[in-house]
Amino acid sequence: MRYSVERHASRPISVNGLMLKQLPIKRQGATEFTFSRFLVPHLSEFQGYSMFADEDMVVRGDIHELFDYVANDKQHDVWVVKDQERFEWPSVMVFNNERLKHLTPEFIDDESNVLFDFAWIESVGGLPGEWNHCVAMKPSRLDAKLYHWTQGIPYWPECRGFPEDKYWFEEYEAMVKSVKWVELHHNTKHFKPVMKRMLETQYGVRIG
To answer: Which of 31, 43, 141, 42 is closest to 91 using CA atoms?
Structure first.
């Protein structure tokens, strides 16, 4: 997810994971980000716009298009893709941080606040459907800008079989791709000691 955001962004973008042990809340659901997602405005010091997205996604568009989209519509507190099932709304949220100062750690940790009901805001705006296409839950499409494998990423064989899977594998392969070590280091000071160690440990060749 993080790699795909950065790879397709036209300008620098900061992408941070929500690690519960690093956050000022304790409330946890099925995942560490079940409730910590609502802490994003607090973590952004209630300034500007921020976005939350589940980790089982791949972004194919320029994420700045999404921020430009909401910047021209200041009347809402949060934006979601409304043409999904309602329980999927919180999987992609863009926050107008300065209007959400009540989303404090104490508010989020209070279990009497459901949070997923969006009762904590006055107005929910809509994002284009291409920014949260739920694979297997909607008819296949190959022109979306954000793909969401909400039933499971195609890393697992049980979750494969959809045309959109090719985008997940494309981002994965681009992320792990590298040049050969020799191509990278043949003109550096590291080349000789590494080759010497390899010859000695793998081939038993002693080099003085």
So the answer is: 31
Strand order of the sheet with strand 49-53?
Answer: 49-53, 92-96, 78-80, 124-126
| Cβ neighbour number for residue 9 with a 10 Å cutoff | 16
Q: Give me the domains of the chain, ranges plus CATH numbers.
A: 2-176 (3.90.550.10), 179-208 (no CATH)
- d(CA 13, CA 16) in angstroms, rounded, equals 10
Backbone torsion region of residue 202, taken as left when φ is above 0, otherwise alpha when ψ lies between -120 and 50, otherwise beta: alpha
CB distance 164 to 147 below 8 Å: yes
- Please give the structure tokens belonging to residue 81: 């893709």
The per-residue pLDDT for 7 is 97
Written as one letter, the residue type at 152 is G
* CA distance linking residue 4 with residue 45, whole number of Å: 26
Summarised one tens digit per residue, pLDDT across range 27-56 is: 999 999 999 999 999 999 999 999 999 999
